[in-house]
Write a structure and sequence with these properties.
By secondary structure, this protein is an alpha+beta fold. The chain has 30 helices and 24 strands. It folds into five domains: about 180 residues, Hypothetical protein af1432 (Orthogonal Bundle); about 140 residues, Beta Polymerase, domain 2, CATH 3.30.460.10; about 80 residues, Beta-grasp domain (Ubiquitin-like (UB roll), Roll), CATH 3.10.20.30; about 170 residues, no CATH class; about 90 residues, ACT domain (Alpha-Beta Plaits, 2-Layer Sandwich). The strands form seven sheets. Strands 3, 4, 5, 6, 7 and 8 form a six-stranded mixed sheet that branches. It has a five-stranded antiparallel sheet with strand order 21-22-20-23-24, with helices on one face. A four-stranded mixed sheet has the order 15-17-16-18, with helices on one face. The longest helix has about 35 residues. It is extended and about 95 Å long.
Length: about 775
């Protein structure tokens, strides 16, 4: 700037700086120059491609204004600028500039493919789907959109990086939005986008999103904490500066070149710590810390030794995240030391490469390419989780269920354990042996039967702790237990177990449906189901159109689940077979209908307890072998077996008689069956133990016990859920109980809720 002569003094003076007008500032922010300064890492051809995308986006958004009054193009430019800070490639920057073109400007995907190529168009298309997301409810369409987002992210992580840049700029400008929208947008940022940023190692973005969301959700608390931190900062400034000087002097004396940087805990982190641990602000001691950044990995451990010689370490506050990285790829040594005046100071020690990964996570793939090994380490960041998304999707087609699985993994407070070969594995806190088995391989998880932790035998539901050495045993005949769903912690384990159980249930339901349809066909005079061949293909096609099923297996499964009635499907199938020339066997039809009338059990479904998910034994009456039973095909529930005299079954028979089928017990049941007993006893010491001992002596298993609340003066009811082989075994158990002098009465209840409606009663005698 050149000086001008002042007429009054005769001296030269500098003119006042020209302050750009609001219109000029907006025009500057909307120009390509606002982005150009950050593209120095791209070559000329890439910059020209980005420029072409800017021109296209600028034209597409012409006339559109943001809530702040700025031209709309300022938003895509800001998003692209954030992506440029991560050093993303030209395709990602082009997609960032164009990310609202399809949604807001009527531009089509084919048009983008023609102008900028398929990769850019795919990125924009993926981002367009994300912009439609609303996370404030759990409706199916939102869960489906979230599933698409994560799968797009798993295929190309640039999608979520651009989306996080988009969300960051929207949060920075949230004050321009109506206040009514602040809570919804901030909540979904805090619950969805910030955890994803953390899971992918984008620490800087994670911290910023949390802070901005916190300031809009709870502005008063944010303001109070901000003032408190400012006061504490001024009080401790001298202390921190003293520590910095002493540390720099110590490292200079040791001949180690370091870069020292201050670290301040975010307001949201302080608030969450105060809330979770019920602390006052004065009790939060780790608000400030220092980062020691060194050239080489070995220097980190040398630096740790120097610091521990300078100040006393706080016991239990050292963590080696270099040897054992966090699940999102973060690496550093953490130690808390007692500094001057007895104030605790946390140090984080890391290399430059680790610092890049710590701040930028998966974005470090583009940011830090100088060292191939560091690039590989950055490449691995979040890769396992992204791959697990595809695995869970393969097992889980239901969008809401997929979201349930993934939500678990978004908050990975990790625990680190070892395999017998000393391989380190990171799992979410609360993970069990079963989670560990599935983390190794799905086949190991499916067939795990036993486990040892630190060489000691433990149950499969045992929670893992840091440093545990875990060894699992498998058996080829073992399969996942539905009870595992009650304690597994990882989305991968949960999806694998559910997938196996669904597959098993489908196969069983299909087998049951085939048997029911065959029986219904025999009653119509057709010996068996038509084959799947060229001659009968047209018949099957017409039947599937009639039922609305996609294929034969689905039709049979629907029949087995009670979604379709076998007799109706059979009648339609007979009509179609007649059209193709098949004739009914009158003798078979007469015999089937006559014997079915004479003996309802003829051709009945045989039950032995091994049917798993396709057959349920009603909890209202809990039938056991020896009881007279009926089968009800519930809608979508499969076959539900009731005792013949069950009041619930009688109501269903009156209302829905066509859904009942014949069932009977196998001569050799494959397992025991549960039923309810109420034992009325006189109050006395040890009576419960004597009753339990009598049941054990009669070889009955007690699966649940309950008793009256409060202490009755004369008598009390003990309610047992016991497993017995059959009705004869149950009667033997009841006789054994009745022999106890304190027992006044034993009765079997046939209703849920432990009511006193009885099937048999052993009196006091």
């Amino acid at each position: 700037m050149s000086a001008v002569l002042d007429p009054s003094s005769g001296k030269r003076k500098r003119p006042a700086p020209v302050v750009p007008s609001s219109a000029q500032a907006k025009a500057a922010a909307a120009s390509f120059a606002a982005l150009m300064a950050k593209l120095d890492y791209l070559d000329a051809s890439d910059i020209e491609q980005v420029r072409q995308a800017y021109r296209f986006a600028d034209e597409a958004h012409l006339g559109q204004i943001r809530a702040s009054g700025d031209p709309y193009i300022t938003h895509p430019i800001a998003v692209a600028a954030q992506c440029a800070q991560w050093k993303l490639d030209a395709q990602a920057l082009m997609a960032a500039l164009l990310h609202d073109a399809i949604e807001d400007c009527g531009v089509t995907k084919p048009e983008l493919i023609e102008r900028f190529g398929a990769p850019v168009a795919e990125l924009v298309d993926g981002l367009t789907k994300l912009d439609k997301l609303q996370f404030n409810t759990r409706e199916e369409n939102q869960a489906e959109s979230f599933r698409k987002m994560l799968l797009a992210m798993a295929r190309d992580v640039r999608v979520i990086l651009i989306k996080l840049a988009d969300r960051s700029h929207n949060m920075r400008t949230l004050n321009d939005m109506p206040r009514a929208k602040w809570h919804r947008i901030s909540s979904e940022t805090l619950e969805i986008y910030a955890p994803i940023a953390n899971r992918l190692g984008l620490n800087q973005t994670y911290r910023e999103l949390q802070e901005l969301a916190f300031s809009h959700i709870q502005p008063w608390r944010h303001a109070v904490l901000s003032k408190a931190v400012t006061k504490a900062r001024s009080r401790r400034r001298d202390l921190i500066q003293k520590v910095q000087r002493e540390v720099e002097a110590a490292f200079e004396a040791a001949g180690l070149k370091i870069r020292l940087a201050g670290r301040e805990k975010t307001l949201y982190s302080i608030y969450r710590k105060m809330d979770e641990k019920h602390l006052s602000f004065a009790q939060v001691t780790d608000i400030y810390g220092l980062r020691v950044i060194l050239p080489r990995l070995i220097d980190c451990y040398t630096a740790l030794g120097i610091l521990h010689q300078m100040y006393k370490p706080v016991p239990g506050r050292f963590k080696d995240h270099i040897a054992i990285p966090k699940v999102n790829g973060y690496q550093s040594l953490h130690t808390t030391l007692v500094g001057p005046a007895g104030v605790n100071v946390e140090f984080q020690i890391r290399t430059e490469a680790m610092h890049v990964v710590a701040e930028s996570g998966v974005a470090a793939h583009w940011l830090y390419k100088a060292n191939p090994t560091d690039d590989e380490a950055a490449d691995r960041t979040g890769a396992q989780w992204l791959q697990s998304l595809l695995d869970i999707q393969h097992e889980t087609r239901d969008a809401a269920e997929f979201w349930d699985h993934v939500k678990i993994d978004l908050f990975p407070d990790a625990v680190y354990v070892f395999t017998p070969k000393s391989q380190i594995m990171a799992l979410p806190r609360g993970a069990t042996v079963v989670d560990f088995a599935y983390a190794i391989h799905s086949n190991i998880g499916d067939h795990v039967v036993a486990a040892k932790i630190n060489s000691a035998q433990v149950p499969l539901r045992t929670e893992l702790k840091n440093g545990d050495v875990v060894e699992v045993e498998t058996a080829a005949t073992s399969t996942p237990d539905p009870a595992w769903l009650g304690f597994v912690r990882t989305g991968r384990a949960r999806s694998k177990i559910r997938h196996h159980l669904k597959t098993l249930a489908q196969a069983e339901s299909q087998g049951l449906g085939e048997k029911l349809l065959t029986q219904a066909l025999r009653a119509e005079g057709i010996e068996r189901l038509p084959d799947i061949d060229a001659h009968h293909q047209l018949v099957w096609d017409k039947l599937l159109r009639f039922t609305g099923s996609r294929h034969r297996d689905e039709l049979l499964m629907d029949i087995g689940l009670g979604k379709r009635i076998a007799s109706i499907v059979a009648k339609r199938l007979v009509t179609l077979l007649a059209e193709s020339g098949a004739k009914r066997d009158a003798l078979l039809m007469t015999r089937e209908r006559f014997t079915a009338h004479e003996n309802p059990a003829h051709g009945a479904v045989i039950l032995d307890g091994s049917e798993n998910a396709s057959v349920q034994y009603a909890s209202c009456c809990r039938p056991v072998p020896g009881d007279r039973i009926v089968g009800y095909l519930g809608r979508g529930e499969g076959l539900v077996v009731h005792a013949e005299d069950c009041s619930a079954a009688r109501r269903l028979l009156h209302k829905d008689s066509e859904r009942f089928i014949g069932v009977e017990w196998s001569d050799e049941p494959a397992r025991s069956f549960e039923t309810h007993l109420i034992v009325t006893v006189g109050n006395g010491k040890g009576v419960l133990a004597r009753v339990a001992s009598a049941m054990a002596g009669a070889e009955a298993d007690i699966t649940h016990v309950d008793m009256d609340e409060g202490r009755a003066q004369d008598a009390a009811d003990l309610r047992f859920l016991v497993a017995v082989r059959d009705r004869s075994h149950l009667e033997a158990v009841m006789r054994a109980i009745q022999r106890i002098p304190d027992v006044l009465r034993v009765q079997r209840t046939r209703r849920s809720g432990w009511n006193r409606s009885t099937d048999s009663d052993q009196g006091a005698g």
